Structures are given as C-alpha cells and as structure tokens.
TrEMBL record:
Residues 1-27 are annotated as: Disordered. This is Cystathionine beta-lyase. One of its GO terms (molecular function) is cysteine-S-conjugate beta-lyase activity. The modification N6-(pyridoxal phosphate)lysine is found at K222. CDD domains: CGS_like (cd00614).
Amino acid sequence: MSSSVPSSLLPPSPAPSTPRPGGPQRRYKLETEVVYTESPDQYRSSSVPIYQTATFKQASGSEMGEYDYTRSGNPTRTQLERHLAKIMNASRVLAVASGMSAMDVIARLLRPGDEVIAGDDLYGGTNRLLKYLSTNGGIIVHHVDTTSISAVTEKLNDKTAMVLLESPTNPLIKICDIPTITRLVKDTVPNAIVAVDNTMLSPIAQNPLDFGVDIVYESATKFLSGHHDLMAGVIAVNDEKLAEKLFFTVNATGCGLAPFDCWLLLRGVKTLAIRYEKAQNNAQIVAEYLEGAGFKVRYPGLESHPQYDLHWSMARGAGAVLSFETGSVDVSERIVESARLWGISVSFGCVNSLISMPCKMSHASIDPKVRAERALPEDLIRLCVGIENASDLVEDLKHALFQAGALKTDSELSC
Ligand SMILES: Cc1ncc(COP(=O)(O)O)c(C=O)c1O
Ligand SMILES: N[C@@H](CCSC[C@H](N)C(=O)O)C(=O)O
C-alpha cells in the first residue's frame, strides 16, 4: 500500500466516486458512498487491511518513505480518513482516540486571553474541558443560548477566537442557526474559528462544512461506529493550513487512532446509513408515542419543536436522540430502572436503545448550581434509540412508565 504521494495530498476515497475507471466522475448518494471504498492494496483486498505495526522500515537511512511510525501515520488510518473525508465533504479528516480527544486537538488552537463562545446546553465532557481551559489555560469561555443570534452577537468581539456549536444540543435538543452564526462570525471576526460538534446527527443527516464552518468534529464512538465497541473521534476540515496545524497536534501529542480501531470504525461506517435510518424511524415513533401520552418531548422530528423549520432547513433527518421530562426526579428514576429493553447507559448512536438521566450520568460533571442556572431539568430522561423493533421499544417504555406511576393505566395516556 505504498505510494510516493503523501497520503495527505491524495483525494478522498474516491472523490467523486469512480467505480468504472475512465467513466463519468459522479457523486453517488450517501448510502452508496458509505459502503464504497477503494484502496490501493497490492492484493486488491475487499476489506482494508489492518497495518498492526508501530514502525515501517525505510529503504535508506537518509530518505524517509511515506510512513515511518504509526503515531505519525498508518495506512489503515489513512484509508479511514480518506473515506470519512468523502462522506463529510471535507478535504481532510483526522481520526483520533475519542471525541474528547478531537475536542482537545481543536482547543489547542487557542492561546491564553482568547475568548470562546459555546452553548449553554452542551455535552458535559465538552463543558468540563472548557472549564479546565478557563481555569488553567487563561481562556475566557462564554456560555450562551446559541438558539439566540443576539446572544451570540453580544459576546462576539475582536478577542473571540472560537465559536463552538452543537445542533441539536446534548441533551436539550436545541437547534442553532449554523449558517447565520457562521456568516455573522466571518463578517465580524474573520479569523475566529467556527467549530461544530456534529455527533448528534452524523454526516448522514447534516454536513456543517457545507455551511462554511471551519471545523466539524464528531465522537465516532457514537453513530459513525454504531456498536459501542470502540472509542474514536474525527475532525474534518476544508482548509489545508488548518489541517496541518491540527495534524501537528495529533502527531505531537500521539492521539491518532490505533490501526485496529481504524479498521473497526471503517467497518462500522459502512452500515451507517442503514443503521441511522432505522434508528431515526424508531425515534420518531417513540417521540410521537410519548408526546401523545402528554409528556414534554424534545425531538426535532416533532412539529412542536420550537426550531422545527430551522432544523429542517439544515438537516436531512431528526436523529435518534430525544429527551423528555416527567415532573419528578423520583418518577424519572423509576422509569429508567423499570425499562428492560432500554439499557441504562450513557452514550448514543448504538444499535441498542439506551435510557439515561443526563444530570446523573453524562452531564453529572457539570456543577449542579450551573445546571440549575442553565435550566437543565434534573428529571430529564434521554432516550437514545436503536434499531430494534419499534413496537417492542414502545411496549417496553409503556410498561416502564406504568410501573413508575407515570401512566395511570397502560392504555390510558396521562402523566
Ligand atoms: C455531543 C458529544 N460530543 C462529544 C462527545 C465526546 O465523545 P467521546 O466519548 O468519544 O470522547 C460526546 C460523548 O461522549 C458527545 O455526546
Ligand atoms: N463518565 C463519562 C460519561 C460519558 S457520557 C458519554 C456521552 N457523550 C453521552 O452524552 O452519553 C464522563 O465523565 O465523561
């Protein structure tokens, strides 16, 4: 799998797709692109080989070949990165050890005194890293309601170095206007970086690079891999200078994804479209059931979602994560503990359905006082819908609601 051209200069795998050599260059639909890979393997292997090696021997002592050391580059990682670049509409993707590792690489672009604007609802681990940087790294972080353009505008100034967005947010499923915020930032502080955490939707449903943002990153632990059997993060960009800066950090800190995990992630990505579609259809059914039962449900597939139109102007799907309130922490706890099919677990984007209470689990690292200030309901239940049979999921949930006393009878719908 050697090539005299450095992997970073090679096109994605391939862009646009060219299954017939010499045939017309065309871009296939995403469902096709996720499964179609081309690799320059010497034996034309269908599955990209795992180069389980730390080092690569060189032909001479003075000229280094394309690969020398897996921390700096590995052919399995290269194939994964090129494949992801194709489906994320990026010129370059970097695969790293976890979603937080991706965020860490991005955060190392910041310098003391820089200001960051981030959401007031965001993944607990991201909040924790930003808090660490503001306490120890001299970074000033403003958490604002990113659904409000004026709230973002108010904090923008010439010290703003980064605007960090999630849409939908985890766990309140708030939607922000990524194109408008990006234009606003570029017009006001052209050098500021707009970075979007696209974990909640995956490239199947949303491609923020198409809206002009600088960096898209995802926890590939979630939808991209889909089976909760690996940790990974991906960073996608369209600017080669920015890519080189980010790659410098990946190489310097040694957080590049290991060959076996690259292989496993590449295998997972191939079923992304089909897994995502099934999970999303299930999520819509579950969301409609809960709303019909009288709960306050947050899901962009429901017309009651306050930013329904905005969401559908940016995204091709509603995702498979929803949250709802019960009015009581005790009731929520009983619901979570009464579910059978829904595993009590953090994370999402897995083939299995999961149930959790963010304030006690994924967002427990946010100070309870801060959670209250940001109006994160302590009784919030988050459902991460998998690919099981939808009726089985609804039945199990109905049973749990009934057991917990949230439904008076298993047929009567009141909370
Ligand atoms: C929205 C979001 N971004 C980033 C992360 C971090 O990803 P990882 O767990 O792979 O480090 C998570 C979850 O952990 C998440 O939910
Ligand atoms: N103990 C972990 C919790 C991880 S939460 C994972 C995921 N992003 C989610 O939202 O469920 C930690 O402290 O990071």
